[in-house]
Amino acid sequence: MKLTLLILCRLIAGFALMVLVHGCATLDNYLPASPQQISAGDESRLGAAVERRLLQMLGGLYQDEELSALMTRMGKKVGIDISIADKSSAAVYPLPGERVVLTRGLLMEMESLDQLETLLKNAASMSHAAMNNIDSRAMTKEVQGFLSAKGPSYDPDSAEIRIARHFASLPCEEACLYEAMHRLNGQGTPLPEPVLALQAAKP
Q1: Which one of 129, 150, 197, 202 has the minimum C-beta count within 10 Å?
Q2: Is 100 helix (H, G, I), strand (E, B) or coil?
Q3: Residue ranges of domains in the chain
Q4: Cβ atoms of residues 82 and 130 within 8 Å
């Protein structure tokens, strides 16, 4: 009788342990992933690929040599690379690798150089934290897939395109832009000529 009871207790304990282990594994699937940790070189490579795909999604790169040169100079001051998408709505897209995509529509709404500089400082801060937006297990897997690829992919459903879609869904717009866009309310140094030319040329 005692032997039977001992065996029964051991069976129950073993079953409970199996349930506990299985339960922990199942729970782990629902825990948020830690922010993706990759090298600076890999982050730069990821940012460049995402920027290229994102610009395609946003209407292409806005072509203006003087404006691009101005954005390059201003970007260096705050530690980011800036590209301009030919899109009419106002938005900022912070990307990994210290890259930022601004829309043409955003520059259309600028009222002073001070306002633009404030916006770019905020954009730089958002870009430095962009990898924190890759916080799901699915996106972490996409990044790992991208980094393991040996070259650019032409697959319309590739990892880099899925990552670009992810960042395309996370623009800084409307309320996110409000403070930087309206704090100075047009006061301060006039806008540089390339921005004024853009505002004059585009409705």
Answers
A1: 150
A2: strand
A3: 40-201
A4: no
pLDDT in tens, 35-69: 457 888 999 999 999 999 999 999 999 999 999 99
Owner of token pair 């319309």: 156
> Which among 174, 181, 72, 81 is positioned nearest to 124, based on CA atoms?
81
Q: Give the dihedral sign, CA 129/135/138/140.
A: positive
Distance CA 190, CA 133 (A): 35
Percentage of the chain surpassing pLDDT 90?
40
Residues whose CB falls within 8 Å of the CB of residue 34, separated by 6 or more in sequence, listed in order: 135
Tokens (6 digits) for 20: 């506990």
> Under a CB-based contact definition with an 8 Å cutoff, are residues 124 and 74 in contact?
no
